[in-house]
Amino acid sequence: MGTTVIERKDGVRKSQMKQQSGGTKINVKDLDLFYGDKQALYKVALDIHEKEVTALIGPSGCGKSTFLRSLNRMNDLIDGVKITGDIMIDNENIYETNDVIKLRTKVGMVFQKPNLFPMSIYDNVAYGPRMQGIKSKKELNEIVEESLRGAAIWDEVKDRLKTSALGLSGGQQQRVCIARAIAMKPEIILMDEPTSALDPISTLKVEELIANMKKDYTIVIVTHNMQQAARVSDKTAFFLNGEIIEYDETNNIFSMPKDQRTEDYVTGRFG
Amino acid sequence: MRKFKDHLLRGCLWASAFLTVAVLIIIVGYIFYKGFRLIDFNFIFGDYSPVGHGGIWPMIVTTLYTIFISLIIATPIGILAAVYLQEYAKQGRLVRLIRYATESLTGIPSIIYGLFGAVFFVTTLKFGMSIIAASLTLTIIVLPVIIRTTEEALKTVPQSYREGSLALGTTKLQTLYKVILPSAMPGILSGIILSIGRIVGESAAIFLTAGTVAAMPDGIFSSARTLTVHSFLVTQESGDIELAAAVGIVLIVIILILNFLATFISKRLNKADY
After folding, report:
1. Which residues of B touch A36 (CB under 8 A)?
2. Hey, what long-range contacts does B32-35 have (CB within 8 A, 24 or more apart)?
3. pTM above 0.90, yes or no
4. Which residues does chain B have within 8 Å of residue A102's beta carbon, measured at their own beta carbons?
5. How far apart are CA A122 and CA A126, in angstroms?
6. Who contacts A149 (Cβ-Cβ below 8 Å, separation ≥6)?
7. B163: which chain A residues are within 8 Å (Cβ-Cβ)?
8. A216 neighbors A146 (Cβ within 8 angstroms)
């Protein structure tokens, strides 16, 4: 794994990985994002590789969630957001195509807090496929079982599929959220601090799940928890004030960061 | 001393709650006590005769007509307007203006609406004094109520539901139908129930637009008398409080039945379970 370090005028160092076996799934170039007049992201550039877990770390308000949400265009929901630059997924610019629906079926998302709908567990998982027009009961049953198994929660809920999903514990709900995302058969799954509302044991289960899922999906995870980034991710990007300070193999970020600010952050001097 | 204050506050809270319930019980009790004697099969289902104690069936039918017609027009328009304001419109000056207008409309005394109805629906559109003219006037009266309550209901739907649904590659319309409206249903329903109350309780506006003809209406273009107007007129003309109270009992029962029905229907429509 060779890395080339590009020295930028303002002294920010940025590592760019050479393409490796998985290939680049998401390619971000020169991404600027504004909320009204306030700029939230500055010239963000990042290559995210297929079937790897990429962690985005950084202090609160550094733009990591904003960046994550631009990957499935969830920022479109907020008035006054302006984006310039390119985000290519499989060499297609996602802001040039008008098919947001297709983009979001390909790029699933799991949110900070479990946000299951007030419906049964079954209906929650079948919701996406149904909206895509799948009506066959048999097919839906298969998708639901497969997705819940994929999210390692099938055994816990198989006897209560028709009961309200809101009766589950927080950790269970979050895994059903993951199942709901999997049910769309996405290629990429974005996770926005998926364990921040969970207890340690549930967190562990979700982390195990993420480790298992990366053989099938490209995962981008925002986390506040540096141990979590170290445990689950292959690559880590460190965000600060809307910029990527450093992006490298997770091991390198945590053991031999090149930038002083990265070192200060991962060693807990601020954040 | 602190304990005394605590007791005092507790006493005040209890007294307020008790007073509210007591007033309700006294009013309903008084009306039942005064009017219950008059209620029999003929009183409810018999035709009306100006001399002696005729039935009030024509007024019941007229009342149900006005409720049905006003709601069938006001509910869809009100819900759509609220959805537009809350979910689709860009939150700017225009939306604030519309919101301000709807709020002001709720505060206008109904006699003003009645005058407008009398001029516009009855005279200009040549509907004459009729059930349809009254119903359209009532539609305008309850529209802001439905818009406001629906908007409030939509606001209580967590943003995370919208995001969760849209992130699954659904369209805005699908999200609206399958997630947002079902979750907002209880609130929307309370708006409809409030509207039923407003419609049934209305007298001045109906008086001016539907007239006071105490006979079975031939259709929606005939003049007729609702229960509330009837109750008002019998008290005023003959001072027959007992008869007016009996009409009041029927009104209360009708409202209870309609509220029950509305709750039942919304439960069937609303598959969301909490």
Report:
1. none
2. B32/B245, B32/B249, B34/B241, B34/B242, B34/B245, B34/B246, B35/B242, B35/B243, B35/B244, B35/B245, B35/B246, B35/B247, B35/B248, B35/B249
3. no
4. 169
5. 6
6. none
7. 74, 77, 109, 111, 115
8. no
Lookup: tokens for A84: 């310039």
Q: Do A74 and B166 touch (CB under 8 A)?
A: yes
Helix (H, G, I), strand (E, B) or coil at A107: strand
Interval A24-75: pLDDT, tens: 889 999 999 999 899 999 999 999 999 999 999 999 889 999 999 999 999 9
Q: How far apart are CA A215 and CA B252, in angstroms?
A: 66
Q: Are A118 and A164 in contact (CB under 8 A)?
A: yes
* Residues B11 and B57 placed together within one structural domain of the fold: no
Pair B31, B113 in one domain: no
Cβ atoms of B266 and B186 within 8 Å: the answer is: yes
Sign of CA dihedral B57, B58, B63, B67: positive
Residue A237 CB: number of other CB atoms within 10 A? 27
**Span B46-70, pLDDT tens digits:** 888 766 667 888 999 999 999 999 9
Chain B interface mutation, best of A131, A132, A188, highest count of B Cβ atoms under 10 Å: A131
> Cβ separation of A108 and B168 shorter than 8 Å?
yes
Per-residue tokens: B88:
């689709």
Domain that holds residue B19: 2-36
SS3 B41: helix
CB-side neighbour CA atoms (13 Å) of B3: 0
For residue B48, being part of any structural domain is answered with no
In a shared domain, residues B12 and B146: no
